[in-house]
Write a structure and sequence with these properties.
Layout lengths: L1 E5 L2 H18 L4 E4 L6 H14 L7 E4 L1 E3 L10 H8 L11 E2 L6 H10 L5 E4 L21 E4 L2 H7 L13 E4 L2 H5 L3 E6 L5 H9 L17 E6 L9
Parallel strand pairs: 1-10, 2-3, 2-6, 3-5, 6-9, 9-10
Antiparallel strand pairs: 4-8, 7-8
The structure holds fructose -6-phosphate.
C-alpha cells in the first residue's frame, strides 16, 4: 500500500488525477471502476477540466460504478446514476453505452452485474467513517461478490446530508460490488479527506486486516495507492 499525504483536498484531487491520467495515457480503452460521494468530486472536476483543455478522450473508455441505492428511481436526483452523469459523464466524451451503474434489488441483478465487471484497470474508492468500501459494511466477508446490502445506521446517518438531513429519507438498502469484486481490479486508488475519516484511515492502514474494517483488506492488494489529506491522516502514528 502506497500512502500519499497532501496538505488539503485540492491537492488530494490533483494527486488522484495524476494517478488516473497515467492509466488513461497508458491505455486508451481503460476500464475504470468509479465511486460516488463527496470524496471524488474534486477528481471528477479535474478530469472534466483536463478533457476540455487537453482533449483527453474517453471515447473508448468503459466504466463500472461500485454501487447504487435500492428503491430510488434511476433518474431521481439522489441516485448514483444521476450523480455520475452530473459530475462526470455529461462533461466528457464517453459513450453512455460504455458506462455502467448497478441497478436492481435481487440476487440475480447482483450476479448479472458482477459477471459484467471485468478487467478493471483502476478502481477508485472512498472510505466510510466505519471503514466501508463500496457499501460493504463492517463484517462483510472479504470474498463477497456484488450483492444486495442492508445499510447501517452509521452510513445512512453520514448520507442523510443528501436527503434533506433526514435519515428517514435515506434508502435502507443498496446494491454494491463486493470486496472480492473490488479486489479483482488491477490497481486501486482510495481517497479520503477530513478529520471524520481519520479513525477509518488509521484502521485501514495500521490496523489488522480484519472484516471489522473492510478497507483493511486493501493491505493485501498488490497495487493500492491511498491519497489522504492531513486531516484524514491525523491519527496515523507515523
Ligand atoms: C460511493 C461509495 C461509498 C463512499 C463512502 C465515502 O460509491 O461506495 O463507499 O465512497 O461512503 O463517501 P464520501 O466520499 O461521501 O465521504
Amino acid at each position: 500500500m502506497k500512502v500519499i499525504i497532501t496538505k488539503n483536498y485540492d491537492d488530494l484531487s490533483k494527486e488522484a488525477f495524476k494517478v488516473m491520467k497515467d492509466v488513461l495515457d497508458e491505455k486508451g480503452n481503460a476500464v475504470l471502476g468509479l465511486a460516488t460521494g463527496s470524496s471524488p468530486e474534486g477528481l471528477y472536476a479535474q478530469m472534466v477540466e483536463d478533457h476540455k483543455k487537453n482533449g483527453t478522450s474517453y471515447q473508448d473508455v468503459v466504466t463500472y460504478n461500485l454501487d447504487e441505492y435500492v428503491g430510488i428511481d434511476r433518474n431521481d436526483p439522489q441516485s448514483y446514476y444521476t450523480f455520475m452523469n452530473d459530475h462526470l459523464f455529461k462533461d466528457i466524451d464517453i459513450n453512455p453505452e460504455n458506462t455502467h451503474v448497478p441497478y436492481g434489488d435481487t440476487a440475480e441483478d447482483a450476479k448479472k452485474y458482477d459477471d459484467a465487471v471485468k478487467g478493471v484497470d483502476i478502481q477508485l474508492l472512498g472510505i466510510g467513517r466505519n471503514g466501508h468500501i463500496g457499501f460493504n459494511e463492517p463484517g462483510t466477508p472479504f470474498d463477497e461478490r456484488t450483492h444486495i446490502v442492508e445499510l447501517t445506521e452509521s452510513t445512512r446517518d453520514a448520507n442523510k446530508r443528501f436527503f434533506d438531513n433526514d435519515i428517514n429519507k435515506v434508502p435502507t438498502k443498496a446494491i454494491s460490488q463486493g470486496i472480492g469484486t473490488v479486489m479483482d481490479a488491477k490497481k486501486v486508488l482510495l481517497i479520503a479527506n477530513g478529520a471524520d475519516k481519520a479513525d477509518a484511515v488509521k484502521a485501514m492502514i495500521e490496523g489488522p486486516v480484519d472484516v471489522n474494517c473492510p478497507a483493511s483488506v486493501l493491505q493485501n492488494h498488490p497495487d493500492c495507492v491511498v491519497i489522504i489529506d492531513e486531516a484524514a491522516a491525523s491519527k496515523l502514528s507515523q
